[in-house]
């Protein structure tokens, strides 16, 4: 039966540009900028006009109090004729309004010389006098100063008129100054403040446009280049120098990311090429020897045994290669969880070292072991076993003519445990030191090794130790040899599992 595989529908919007759910930098800048400047302008404008109004008013009040007293004194002292003219003169002198009023609001002075009402008589003073009389109750010295709701400051004083007999009667001196001027000035100031606010709004619009343009331009540029990078173009170069320190830093980070991605991309390609090559070699061998058995050695037990052994060896090599690749990718992907426990690292190191014992008997290798007893650590013993095995194996492979490998496990000055393995080989060139930990790096020269390697050993070591967060590294002198080391944290033996 034929089955049609249905292509999964492309995730909607995956390729679309990002939704504009967040306000743009431009809008944010503009809003913040205008709100801030508007706030400042209005605050300043209105507090200033309020302050000005108050100071004007108090100035008027104090002037009026002084003028009122002077006028009162002058009027009391004046005995001459033309009283009305004198009152007008006083008003002119001090630039205030001056009236002498009856309790019912009738203007007594000034009047026309013939006694008829003058111009002021047109006004209705009855309400004002009522308020004055009301205020007078709390007066000291028979005088009072207050702001009348009709919009003027008033100085009021009691006086006596003797026009109707010896007793005399109470009349009122009403001196006032309108507040209109203050109001006009304040209104004018408020209008100016508002105009300024509008100007500031326009200005902040322009300034925030300029700033956000300068800010977003490099971001837009970098976004475009990052997309290019995502499509696999590693030739992109991020610039940010012209746009200030942060942008320069961002550009540098992106350039670094580009280099890392391109490196890992290259390594991945190399890995695939190398792995497939290494898969192919044993497969070719297996096929060749199988054919040989079939065609030639099938009847010859001796040859057949030799040829089948090659097949078995090559199959083993293939298996370990597959295992290494699998291990590494599982570790890298974080699928494998570390099984941490406290264990005797001293005994464990000795055990791993013992696995190489056959080499001293067979090939004349010497292992110098300097292992302090009873050092415990917390780690994944199986993984650490792989690390130790790989590092000692490499030392064996790369050591010099004297075939000497030194293994040491000691407590260091900080109380940690330092494992190191030293060979007497040709060492590693400084420029190679950083690459040897990469997947499938193998120094250019072909090398015959007693311990089989897949070229993934150090990469596995690095991955395992990084997952543990352990410090590790290599010190190497070309021509003299290398020392690979790992620093283990020390653990309390009493916590050890059985
Ligand atoms: P393999 O040893 O299988 O090639 P590794 O990942 O273990 O793979 O090592 C990577 C490379 O690091 C080796 O090919 C070699 O060039 C270098 N290397 C590792 N250990 C040593 C050592 N002790 N001395 C010199 N070079 C070493």
Average pLDDT figure: 84
Which residues form runs of ≥5 with pLDDT under 50? 1-18
Strand content: 15-25%
DSSP summary: helix tally: 11
Structural class: alpha+beta
Arrangement of strands in the largest sheet: 2-1-5-4-3
Specify the biggest β-sheet: 5 strands, antiparallel
End-to-end separation in angstroms reads: 57 Å
Cα-atom radius of gyration: 51 Å
Pattern of helices and strands: HHEEHEEEHHHEHHEEHEEHHEE
Helix percent reads 40-55%
Shape: rod-shaped
* Ligand list: adenosine-5'-diphosphate
Number of strands: 12
What does this entry look like structurally?
It contains eleven helices and twelve strands. It is of the alpha+beta class and 498 residues long. Residues 1-18 have low confidence and may be disordered. The protein has helices at residues 25-77, 83-94, 126-136, 180-230, 245-295, 301-333, 345-354, 357-363, 381-398, 430-433, 457-468, and strands at 97-101, 107-109, 143-148, 152-161, 169-178, 341-344, 366-371, 376-379, 404-411, 417-423, 471-477, 481-488. The strands form three sheets. The protein has a five-stranded antiparallel beta sheet, with helices on both faces. Strands 7-9-10-12-11 form a five-stranded mixed beta sheet, covered by helices on one side. Strands 6-8 form a two-stranded antiparallel ribbon. It starts with 24 loop residues before the first helix and ends in a 10-residue tail after the last strand. α5 runs antiparallel to α6. It is rod-shaped. It binds adenosine-5'-diphosphate.
């Amino acid at each position: 039966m034929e089955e049609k595989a249905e292509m999964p529908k492309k995730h909607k919007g995956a390729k679309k540009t990002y939704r504009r759910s967040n306000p743009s930098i431009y809008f944010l800048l503009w809003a913040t900028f205008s709100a801030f400047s508007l706030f400042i302008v209005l605050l300043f404008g209105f507090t200033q006009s309020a302050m000005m109004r108050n100071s004007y008013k108090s100035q008027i009040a104090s002037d009026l109090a002084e003028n009122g007293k002077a006028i009162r004194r002058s009027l009391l002292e004046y005995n001459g004729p033309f009283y009305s003219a004198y009152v007008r003169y006083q008003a002119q002198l001090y630039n205030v309004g001056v009236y002498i009023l009856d309790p019912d609001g009738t203007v007594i002075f000034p009047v026309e010389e013939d006694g008829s009402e003058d111009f002021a008589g047109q006004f209705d003073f009855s309400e004002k006098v009522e308020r004055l009389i009301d205020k007078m109750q709390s007066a000291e010295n028979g005088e009072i100063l207050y702001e009348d709701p009709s919009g003027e400051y008033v100085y009021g004083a009691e006086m006596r008129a003797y026009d109707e007999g010896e007793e005399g009667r109470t009349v009122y001196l009403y001196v006032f100054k309108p507040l209109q001027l203050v109001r006009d000035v304040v209104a004018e100031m408020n209008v100016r403040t508002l105009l300024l606010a509008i100007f500031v709004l326009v200005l902040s619009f322009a300034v925030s446009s300029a700033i956000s343009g300068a800010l977003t331009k490099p971001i837009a540029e970098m976004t475009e280049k990052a997309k290019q990078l995502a499509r696999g173009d590693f030739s992109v170069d991020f610039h940010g120098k012209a746009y200030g320190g942060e942008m320069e830093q961002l550009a540098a980070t992106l350039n670094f990311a580009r280099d890392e991605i391109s490196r890992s991309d290259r390594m991945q390609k190399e890995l695939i090429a190398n792995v497939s090559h290494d898969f192919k070699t044993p497969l070719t061998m297996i096929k060749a020897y199988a054919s040989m058995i079939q065609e030639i050695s099938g009847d010859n037990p001796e040859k057949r045994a030799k040829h089948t052994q090659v097949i078995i060896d090559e199959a083993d090599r293939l298996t370990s290669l597959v295992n290494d690749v699998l291990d590494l990718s599982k570790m890298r992907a974080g699928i494998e969880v570390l099984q941490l426990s406290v264990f005797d690292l001293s005994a464990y190191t000795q055990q791993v070292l013992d696995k190489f014992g056959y080499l001293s008997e067979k090939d004349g290798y010497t292992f110098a072991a300097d292992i302090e007893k009873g050092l415990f650590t917390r780690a994944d013993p199986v993984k650490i076993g792989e690390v130790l095995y790989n590092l000692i194996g490499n030392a064996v492979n790369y050591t010099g003519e004297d075939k000497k490998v030194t293994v040491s496990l000691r407590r260091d000055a900080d109380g940690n445990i330092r494992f190191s393995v030293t060979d007497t080989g040709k060492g590693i060139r400084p420029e190679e030191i950083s690459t040897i930990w990469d997947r499938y790096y193998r120094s250019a020269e072909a090398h015959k090794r007693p311990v089989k390697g897949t070229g993934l050993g150090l990469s596995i070591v690095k991955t395992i130790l990084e997952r543990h967060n352990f410090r590790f590294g290599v010190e190497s002198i070309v021509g003299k040899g290398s020392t690979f080391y790992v620093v283990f944290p020390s653990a309390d033996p009493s916590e050890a599992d059985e």
